[in-house]
Design goal:
- This protein has 630 residues and is an alpha/beta fold.
- It contains 19 helices and 18 strands.
- A hairpin with a 2-residue loop joins strand 3 and strand 4.
């Protein structure tokens, strides 16, 4: 018998097709890794201490877990973790359930943050549920609905327990009290090292009773998803998943997304190969065009994208450029890349040598590492720094990483970065806005800190960043970081990139296009004007026709570690880096294993700044600037 679980119900809220197609795969894995990286499992274990002592129902077997739940609820008072309920084909397990006489509290724990000092966080002024909360609230409604069907004579309360950004940790190492374990008998994957709430310091999780709102979702038609009320969603999802009925898209009031449009509109196998409008960068009109049976880039017309700029590509003109090149490419026509040489030159001639390329690795955590820190404060744990000199020499000049569990690294991070950048007035480069945002966040942290050199650190941050409040410029440093992603958006496009400007996509496009970059980095590091802090001189970045150096990053080698616990098979993207850092923080491992992960993080981050250098060299070689010539 197939059951519509709360996990499946949430997938249906994203898109009904996820109930009829096998999405097991990376999506389930990514949900797990996301919860691991941001401390979601740890927050659940901490929340159980707020309601204890309780009984954890660890059985995976449906029948056993249901019977144990019924037995516990028969008692006048009980606290249950992972209580199980079944109504017809609907099955749920609740994070925390508190039963007192005829009142049952269903408490859903989310690592998502909120500010408990702010009123009406769940609904807008118009009375609608805010977009960012809809899935959470409908999930809780699903749980309340199933519990109520089992216990109609009881009063069912609905509570959402969240990390409260207005609170601060009062102890050091709160995150270290909840360790990742590979023990298959631990359902959440977290081993708790404390037994009482007092051991965790002041509370940082907050419970909100939202019973009235949940009742409105269940009983009224005013709150909808996919154009359907809660009860209509339950009925439709049950038909699709448990009864295996074909999806009738007319029931979903025009819902269409990347996952389902091909099936909805019965797109042929040949047409699946045509560049479609979901590829188009910064485009938001897909649903409107679908109503006119417009699905593909070759159906779009230039007049809808007219928007001229004298000095760089606008959003619309870049979109049309992408349409032209992708359509031509799909027809087998030769397609060249686009580079606005004149306007890019105007920017590049203003750059000052030596050029500094920096990249940060950061995270947030539901459970603060040190006292005085809020849930989900930014943590900057790593950076890489390349320098390009006026004579063309390139150094991987410096790097920083903190791999010590439970340490708040931000101030040490900025001190190190300041030391690396303050020796000259050379231009500083970032890729996208992340580095600017992180330094702004650390600036705000410094304001309330007791650091003796906080004034110097704050002045340094201001010198290489900009800050806006309500669209008004607060400051712009004299070395405000130059955004290479912004340069790409304004001046460069290749059909290989499709609708992405991620450095992970731009770099292979550059390697494909640029003979200079391709030839140079097809040689060992020792034979080119390049130094590395993490790779040997015989390392080659581009080999065997591979356009993507990230794929060739070596996986962590735990072969000489006894009983490794890290379970990290690759580390070549930001998500992998976050997971690796989370495991360093939350998992007990040997110093040897921690050092192996640390070295892999250093290699990954080094490539991020070297990728920026390669893109710079492509620009300079095409423009014949900075010592590049025929």
């Amino acid at each position: 018998m197939k059951f519509l679980t709360k996990t499946l119900f949430k997938k249906g809220l994203e898109c009904p097709i996820k109930l009829s197609v096998d999405y097991e795969s990376s999506e389930d894995k990514n949900e797990f890794l996301d919860a691991l990286a941001d401390g979601g499992f740890q927050a659940e274990e901490l929340s159980r201490l707020y309601y204890s002592p309780g009984v954890l129902i660890e059985d995976y077997d449906y029948a056993t877990s249901l019977q144990k739940t019924r037995d516990l609820i028969k008692k006048p008072k009980s606290i249950i973790y992972e209580a199980a309920f079944l109504h017809e084909n609907l099955f749920i397990r609740t994070d925390i359930l508190v039963k007192t006489d005829n009142v049952i509290k269903v408490i859903e724990v989310k690592a998502k943050s909120f500010d408990s000092t702010v009123e009406n966080i769940f609904k807008s002024k118009s009375g609608n549920i805010r977009q960012q909360w809809r899935t959470y609230l409908f999930d809780l409604a699903f749980q309340k609905y199933v519990v109520k069907k089992n216990y109609p004579e009881h009063k069912i309360e609905s509570h959402l327990m969240l990390a409260d950004k207005s609170k601060k940790a009062s102890i050091d190492g709160l995150n270290q009290l909840f360790q990742i374990t590979k023990d298959p008998n631990v359902r959440t994957g977290i081993m708790r090292k404390v037994d009482t709430l007092e051991d965790t310091g002041d509370p940082i999780m907050e419970s909100r009773n939202i019973s009235d709102l949940i009742n409105d979702i269940i009983e009224k038609d005013i709150h909808k998803i996919h154009g359907l009320s809660f009860l209509e969603l339950v009925e439709n999802f049950t038909e699709v998943y448990t009864n295996q009925k074909e999806i009738d898209w007319k029931n979903y009031n025009g819902h269409v997304c990347r996952e389902c449009w091909i099936e909805q509109f019965d797109i042929s196998e040949n047409d699946k190969l045509r560049p479609n409008i979901y590829e188009l960068w910064q485009f938001r009109k897909q649903k409107k065009l679908f109503k006119s049976n417009v699905f593909f880039l070759d159906q779009l017309v230039k007049s809808d994208f007219d928007d001229t700029r004298d000095n760089h590509l606008s959003v619309k003109s870049r979109q049309w450029l992408q349409i032209e090149k992708r359509v031509a490419e799909s027809l087998g026509k030769p397609v060249d890349f686009y580079l606005d040489i004149e306007n890019l030159r105007d920017e590049m001639v203003e750059w000052k040598f030596p050029l500094h390329f920096i990249d940060f690795e950061t995270c947030t955590s539901a459970l603060p590492f040190t006292r005085g820190r809020h849930p989900y404060e930014q943590i900057a744990f790593q950076y890489s720094h390349h320098i390009v000199y006026s004579d063309g020499n390139i150094q991987h000049k410096s790097e920083y990483i903190n791999a010590e569990p439970g340490k708040f690294p931000n101030y040490e991070f900025v001190r190190s970065l300041k030391k690396d950048l303050e020796n000259d007035k050379g231009s500083v480069f970032k890729y996208a806005t992340h580095e600017n945002s992180i330094l702004n966040a650390i600036y705000d942290q410094l304001i309330d800190s007791d650091e003796k050199d906080k004034g110097e650190l704050m002045d340094f941050i201001k010198s290489i960043t900009n800050k806006k409040e309500n669209s008004e410029l607060v400051w712009r440093g004299d070395r405000d970081m130059i955004d290479m992603c912004d340069l790409v958006k304004k001046y460069f496009y290749d059909s290989y990139m499709k609708g992405s400007n991620s450095i992970k996509v731009v770099l292979p496009a550059v390697i494909k296009i640029c003979e200079f970059v391709n030839k140079k980095y097809s040689k060992p590091i020792s034979e080119i004007n390049l130094t590395s802090l993490n790779f040997s001189g015989n390392h080659i970045w581009i080999k065997d026709g591979n356009l993507d150096p990230y794929i060739s990053l070596p996986a962590p080698d735990f072969s000489k570690v006894q009983n490794p616990v890290g379970d990290i098979n690759k580390l070549n993207n930001g998500g992998d880096a976050l997971t690796a850092y989370a495991k360093i923080q939350y998992q007990e491992m040997s110093s040897e294993e921690r050092n192996i992960i640390k070295q892999s993080l250093l290699k990954y981050c080094e490539l991020d700044t070297l990728a920026m250098v390669m893109i710079y060299e492509f620009f300079a070689s095409e423009l014949k600037l900075h010592g590049f010539s025929n």
